[in-house]
C-alpha cells in the first residue's frame, strides 16, 4: 500500500466526480448515496428495467448489490451488467447474504456468470458461500474470520478472473495470486447497518477513476478503514458514528492518510 497512490486516487474521484450507477437495496440506499457524495462521486440509484440500460450508458461504474432481492431487480441487474460489459466499464458486485438461502446462492451465481464483475466484495461467510454453497451465513452477517475465507477468495478470483475483497476486522484483497491485507478500521463500524454495502459503493468510485483494479480495490478499502478510525474517535455510539463517518470521508486529507500509516507502522 502506498499513501501517495491512495491520495492520488482519492483526488481523482474528487476532481472527476464519476457517475456511479447503483442497483442496491432499500436498507442502504441513503447511506451509500451519501457516502459517494461525501467522497466526491456522483451517485445514481436506478433499478427500473426500462431505464437501467440507458443509465449504464452514461455511468463510469456499476455497483450491483443483492441485499433486498426481487425478481424484477435481479433482471435489472442482469440487463445493466450486460450493458456495462458492452461498454467495458467496471462492475462491483456485493453478494449480500450469500449462503443464507438457496435463492440467494442461485442469484449470486447467476449475476457472476452473466455479468462478469471486475470486483466481488463480501464478508468472509459470503465469499466462502460463493465457493461452497453448503456454507451458511447468519442472515447477512459473517460467522467466520476473513483469514479463514482467503483460500476461497483466491479460488473465486482465479475462476472468474476478478478481484475479490473480503471485508471484516481485517480486510483482504486478492486477484488469485497477490494478496493485500488492510488492517484499518474500528469495531464500531459493525454496529452501523450497511457499512459493508458502503464499502462496495465506494469501490465503484475508486475503480471508475483507476484502471488498475487491484490497486483501486486496495485504495478503496484503505480509505474506508481510515475513515472508520477517524469517525470512531469522534463518535459516542453507532448513531453519531454514521454522521461522523460521512464528515470524515468528506474531509479526508493526505495528511490524515499518511498519519494513519505511521500509526500502523
Automatic annotation (TrEMBL):
<dbReference type="InterPro" id="IPR029056">
    <property type="entry name" value="Ribokinase-like"/>
</dbReference>
<keyword id="KW-0808">Transferase</keyword>
<feature type="binding site">
    <location>
        <position position="194"/>
    </location>
    <ligand>
        <name>substrate</name>
    </ligand>
</feature>
<keyword id="KW-0784">Thiamine biosynthesis</keyword>
<comment type="function">
    <text>Catalyzes the phosphorylation of the hydroxyl group of 4-methyl-5-beta-hydroxyethylthiazole (THZ).</text>
</comment>
<dbReference type="GO" id="GO:0000287">
    <property type="term" value="F:magnesium ion binding"/>
</dbReference>
<protein>
    <recommendedName>
        <fullName>Hydroxyethylthiazole kinase</fullName>
        <ecNumber>2.7.1.50</ecNumber>
    </recommendedName>
</protein>
<keyword id="KW-0479">Metal-binding</keyword>
<keyword id="KW-0460">Magnesium</keyword>
<dbReference type="GO" id="GO:0009228">
    <property type="term" value="P:thiamine biosynthetic process"/>
</dbReference>
<dbReference type="InterPro" id="IPR000417">
    <property type="entry name" value="Hyethyz_kinase"/>
</dbReference>
<keyword id="KW-0547">Nucleotide-binding</keyword>
<dbReference type="GO" id="GO:0005524">
    <property type="term" value="F:ATP binding"/>
</dbReference>
<keyword id="KW-0418">Kinase</keyword>
<feature type="binding site">
    <location>
        <position position="45"/>
    </location>
    <ligand>
        <name>substrate</name>
    </ligand>
</feature>
<comment type="similarity">
    <text>Belongs to the Thz kinase family.</text>
</comment>
<dbReference type="GO" id="GO:0004417">
    <property type="term" value="F:hydroxyethylthiazole kinase activity"/>
</dbReference>
<feature type="binding site">
    <location>
        <position position="121"/>
    </location>
    <ligand>
        <name>ATP</name>
    </ligand>
</feature>
<comment type="pathway">
    <text>Cofactor biosynthesis; thiamine diphosphate biosynthesis; 4-methyl-5-(2-phosphoethyl)-thiazole from 5-(2-hydroxyethyl)-4-methylthiazole: step 1/1.</text>
</comment>
<feature type="binding site">
    <location>
        <position position="167"/>
    </location>
    <ligand>
        <name>ATP</name>
    </ligand>
</feature>
<keyword id="KW-0067">ATP-binding</keyword>
<dbReference type="Pfam" id="PF02110">
    <property type="entry name" value="HK"/>
</dbReference>
<dbReference type="GO" id="GO:0009229">
    <property type="term" value="P:thiamine diphosphate biosynthetic process"/>
</dbReference>
Amino acid at each position: 500500500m502506498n499513501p501517495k497512490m491512495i491520495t492520488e486516487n482519492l483526488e481523482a474521484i474528487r476532481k472527476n466526480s464519476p457517475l456511479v450507477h447503483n442497483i442496491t437495496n432499500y436498507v442502504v440506499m441513503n447511506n451509500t448515496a451519501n457516502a459517494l457524495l461525501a467522497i466526491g462521486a456522483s451517485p445514481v440509484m436506478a433499478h427500473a428495467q426500462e431505464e437501467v440500460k440507458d443509465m449504464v450508458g452514461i455511468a463510469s461504474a456499476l455497483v450491483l448489490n443483492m441485499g433486498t432481492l426481487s425478481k424484477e431487480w435481479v433482471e435489472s441487474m442482469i440487463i445493466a451488467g450486460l450493458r456495462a460489459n458492452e461498454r467495458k466499464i467496471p462492475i462491483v458486485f456485493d453478494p449480500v447474504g450469500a449462503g443464507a438461502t438457496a435463492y440467494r446462492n442461485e442469484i449470486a451465481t447467476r449475476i457472476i456468470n452473466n455479468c462478469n464483475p471486475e470486483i466481488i466484495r463480501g464478508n468472509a461467510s459470503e465469499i466462502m458461500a460463493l465457493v461452497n454453497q453448503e456454507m451458511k451465513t447468519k442472515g447477512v452477517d459473517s460467522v467466520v474470520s476473513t483469514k479463514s475465507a482467503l483460500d476461497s477468495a483466491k479460488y473465486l478470483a482465479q475462476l472468474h478472473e476478478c478481484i475479490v475483497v473480503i471485508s471484516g476486522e481485517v480486510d483482504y484483497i486478492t486477484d488469485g495470486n497477490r494478496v493485500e491485507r488492510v488492517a484499518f478500521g474500528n469495531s464500531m463500524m459493525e454496529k452501523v447497518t450497511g457499512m459493508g454495502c458502503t464499502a462496495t459503493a465506494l469501490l465503484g468510485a475508486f475503480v471508475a477513476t483507476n484502471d488498475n483494479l487491484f490497486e483501486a480495490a486496495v485504495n478503496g478499502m484503505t480509505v474506508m478503514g481510515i475513515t472508520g478510525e477517524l469517525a470512531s474517535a469522534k463518535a459516542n455510539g453507532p448513531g453519531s458514528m454514521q454522521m461522523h463517518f460521512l464528515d470524515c470521508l468528506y474531509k479526508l486529507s493526505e495528511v490524515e492518510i499518511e498519519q494513519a500509516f505511521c500509526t500502523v507502522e
